Amino acid sequence: MAGKKISPWVKGALDWGPLVAFFIAFNRLKDGHYEILGRDYSGFIVATALFVPLIAISTFLLWRLTGKLSPMQIATLVLVLIFGGLSVWLNDPVFFKMKPTIIYLLFAAILGAGLLRGKAWLQLVMDEAIPMEHAGWMILTKRFVALFIALAIANEIVWRTMSDSVWVDFKTFGLPIILIGFILSQSKLFERYGIEKPKADEDGQGDA
After folding, report:
1. Neighbours of 54 (CB within 10 A)
2. Domain spans in the chain, listed from the N-terminal domain onward
3. CA–centroid distance for 163 within its chain
4. How far is CA 105 from CA 146, 147, 196, in A?
5. pLDDT digit string, tens, across residues 26-81
6. Where are the transmembrane segments (predicted)?
7. How many CA atoms lie within 13 A of 157 on its CB side?
8. Is the pTM of this model over 0.90?
């Protein structure tokens, strides 16, 4: 099924809305403890319990609106459901904090496996946005593998050595800023290996 275009504002709201909601909920609830069905929960766990269904709903809406989901979106949803669910069920925030580590290591492993076979699987996800020659995708994929491993290590250091507030700030702002900064830093690579998309027939007619 071909993907359908949606407004960038709608896509941005669905992509980032659950994370922003988690950040707001955590900062409002972090100092309290809440009794639910006879169990005492921290504000962190309550915010996590809100985040898990929100990301499930937003991913479902993205699928309904666009007709497709990337492998990364599917993997992220599955791991959020597993690790976020475990944190809520066991009343232990550690599982949710480990989720970014597992996600980044999984992405690094998948991309690394593709590289061993001479394939740049990152191209399957990003080629529509950044068309490049195969050689460029191989270089970018290697760099993303290194980035994902570094982010996994960074997440482990932050959640194990710092407060919940610092980790939430790092997850909400630090990780996205690093990813965006990394992509912007690859401009030379995009210029060297980029290719122009073929222009659509202005008359909208194709061969019979």
Report:
1. 18
2. 1-90, 93-196
3. 23
4. 10, 10, 32
5. 999 988 888 888 889 999 999 999 999 999 999 999 999 988 888 888 988 999 99
6. 41-62, 74-90, 102-122, 134-154, 166-184
7. 7
8. no
